[in-house]
Amino acid sequence: MLRPVPFRATAICAALALALPTAVHAQQQEQPAASAQVPSEREFSLPAGPLSATLQAIARIGGKRIQFEEADVQGLQAPAIAIRTTVQGAVQTAVSGSGLTMNTNPDGSIRVFVQQLAAVAVTAQRDEAETGFRASSSSTATRGGADLLDVPQSVTVLTAKVMETQQSASVEDALRNVAGVVVQPATQGANAFNIRGFNTGTATLSNGLSDPNSVKTNIAGVERVEILKGPQALLAGANALGGTLNIVTKKPTTERIRDVSLSYGSHAERTGTIDLAGAINDSKEFSYRLIGSATRAGGSSAGYDGRSQTYGLGEVRWKNADTDFIAGVSADNSRSVLDRYTVAIRGYIEPPPPTLPGNPGNGIETRTRSVFYTLQHSFSDALQFSSRMQRVSTDMDLSVWTPQFPVSTPNLLLNYSGTMVNSNQTTTSGDHYLSYKFKTGPVEQRLVAGVNHSDYSYDQTQYTGPRAVVRFDQPTQYPYPALTRSNDTRSFSNYSPQEQRGLYLQDTLKWEQWTLVAGLRHTSLDTGPGLTTVYTNPPTPSTVSSKKSFGRNTVNAGLIYNLDWNTSVYGSYAEGFSPLFSDLNICGTSSAATPPTLSKSKELGIKSNVEDRFSWSAAVFQIDQVNLLRRNRPQNCNDLIDGQRSQGVELEASGKPMRGLNLIFNYSYNKRKSMTDPTARPGVGPNTQVSAWSTYDFQSERLRHWSLAFGISAWGQSLLGVTDTATRSPGGARIDAGVAYTQPEWSVRLGVKNLANRTLYGFSTSTMFVPVYDKRTFMLTYQRKL
What is the CATH number of the domain that holds 663? Predict the structure, then answer.
């Protein structure tokens, strides 16, 4: 049952919705001339030629952005233009007789596109992220479909097409395409990942709403992954110190989709996926989407029984000229296992063990259920209301053998512990806001006011497992005891709830080439009361923790200058926070009241589009973290210290740099240092990472059905610890390649990862767990449109 607070949140927005139309009417009365501005005329003298080149020339002369898809204008010619007219008039002349049409967007830019019938003009269409490498807008950054050129921060969008051509098995696998993101494999449960040197695992989003496990969303249901760099308190509230990740799932569309895919690959992995979508009624106001996927694998690289996953997503949509409403459910049952790992306790990395450090059946069983809706309603061209909510529940059952500590380092004798945990995480979250567009003189504004809420609970029970002392390089399989649960082996249980509420204002102001984006949020957060039970014999009373409350105001601001309609430079400042609670006093005071951990980010960057088919960006940044607790044992209090400083540069590009070529590229350099201890090296992962992935569709008639794929991911060395003296893991480079044959109704793709069959190591802060990536693997995928 939902708590009453979300209802109050919706009620506030409803009240604003009733009040703002009056303001809209008043604004229209006070500025009757605002819409009466006459577009200026210019001299156009252009020869006949390719329509693409003509539209680009009109944009340069007229100083207006003209958007079009390269596929729509390919092979089309524009007539000679020698007239004095408006930019709109020049574009209309250029596309006359081409079968294309145009319209002018609210921001003054012009869009050229294939004419649609009036009856379907407002129906739902497939998102651009499902059809290409480049996405031009973000659905998350400003709580609206903002053009990435108008977002004063680094935003990377991974499209479904990138993940499809890479044959990615998971979102985590695809994150190697993102500058500044490091995925850290874990010994237990979900992998961790950080953005710009800061852990981001608990501040992730799903369709813009809080979901700590969103990164585990089945790849079959993912439309795009948006990675927002820098602190994101305005969007995610607490814990997004270095950035956040938003999973956007596929949506219903009136476009008829009947896609089936079958894959077979290394470790006897088989996957079947079906994707169905289309209109429900003749008016195409109602549409649906159904996605089902099942994976089974015979084994893993480490020798465990293979992974499995069964996933389903069902959605319905009602969309007309004013309202867009989507409701859906999803379910995911999965089994994952540990990949290969090794240790580095003798000052160097050992070869991976020849036997299994556990039993073949060990692994992590996960069961996730979600229900959600999104609503957008336009009261007028100026005023819109948006509301979205979801409830996600994840049950996890973990049974693995974990290396704890060395018993004899020279002999590689390790103490292993059988780890058994049952847990449940439940998150009910919502976001409700009004968006109001208006003009004040020459300044255009978009004001967003809303409320954000999230109720989270974590309930776990841990069991006492057996222990074993085993040589890590044991030549024959050690008979590890089975991991079984019972009431007699329960060690402790813990229940911890958290409620978070946010009130926010976001404002976007445009004046000529300048755009200012600013936001303010007040977050209130309550933790507890929690319950901890330690199972002893005889039983001891459970411990109830007290409820603790916290409040924080955060701001962010960014300024953009458009050098032209295709290039912008920006600077931004953003804040993030994470609350701290302790029962010990701050040293030198008589109070245990603890200020939150803060992150403060400064960023400068440039973004550019090339003919609306290829985008690139560059950014430099610095994030400072302050207010961490360090236990002062002699005085039995906490010292309040500064945290880390993260500085770096990032380069990214995606799209079609030339005909037939799709490319996504990223490079990042991230230097992290402690602001308190000069010998400490906080964070995990290398300073330098680079990756590129490309596909090329042959253009000749003889080879036009064939395409090749090639990619490389490379990284520098990283520490297996948090000090300068820690053992280092070497850098590495992975080469991937593929070939595809495509017909209008079907396609076949063969991909090979780690083509050179190299031994490559992952990232860790412990010498007791050094991940080892898979050697050469392959995947064969057949897709069919029914």
Answer: 2.40.170.20
